[in-house]
């Protein structure tokens, strides 16, 4: 025979409160009319898009004057930049699309991780790091469009001198790589989540995050080369998109049954 215990009341009340939170707070469970809502499970694709388009916009469709052009002086750089104007412009435009995809992925990824580790400081750290990366990338790709407009034959070439184009070419060639550094901080936060406490993220993804963030942060702090982030961040985003896709079903279940 079951003996009544006051703790049973507290347990029942907690269960009801949890059910109410699931019903009204979970964005994947019910809509405003109480009808079941489909999970928006395609956001991991935005991470893959950010990786591919970011690589294209940063260094595949980029331009770095070689040493011979640099030594030849301002006029040589100006002429060489004009020959790559359309490539620079295309890279800048794709870069902005990559930033939009990165913001979508960051919103979905940090929301999912916030459900799986609601008390972890690593989640807001990751969210802030993604935001910093997006801001820096907007600035970098904006400079890239300025460079494309200032080269001979560019849309704004009458407003810029050859010396201006030389300066912008240096800034763009460096910032299009260094602006990804915030993503590597997000990778470090992901490593913390993967290896601390309950398994919020797969261990293989934690290992990838440790390796890539360690290389980039170490190169920045020890050698003064933050530009490695531009090469490593797209790789990490691809891995993050795969990890996000694999935790997505569990996250949806967590949203329904928390």
Structure description:
- Mean pLDDT is 84; it is low at 17-31, 34-39 and 252-258.
- This protein has helices at 6-25, 44-60, 67-72, 74-83, 85-116, 122-150, 162-178, 181-195, 203-223, 228-257.
- The chain is built from ten helices and no strands.
- Helix 4 (74-83) crosses helix 7 (162-178).
- The chain is 76% helix and 0% strand.
- The chain is elongated.
- It is an all-alpha fold.
Structure keywords:
single chain; disordered C terminus; elongated; 76% helix; 258 residues
Indicate the low-confidence ranges by residue numbers. 17-31, 34-39, 252-258
Large-scale geometry: elongated
Q: What is the end-to-end distance?
A: 30 Å
Report the major sheet: none
Order of helices and strands: HHHHHHHHHH
Tally of helical runs: 10
Helix content: over 70%
Helix and strand content put the structural class at mainly alpha
In total, how many beta strands? 0
Rounded to an integer in angstroms, the radius of gyration calculated over CA atoms is 23 Å
Strand content: under 5%
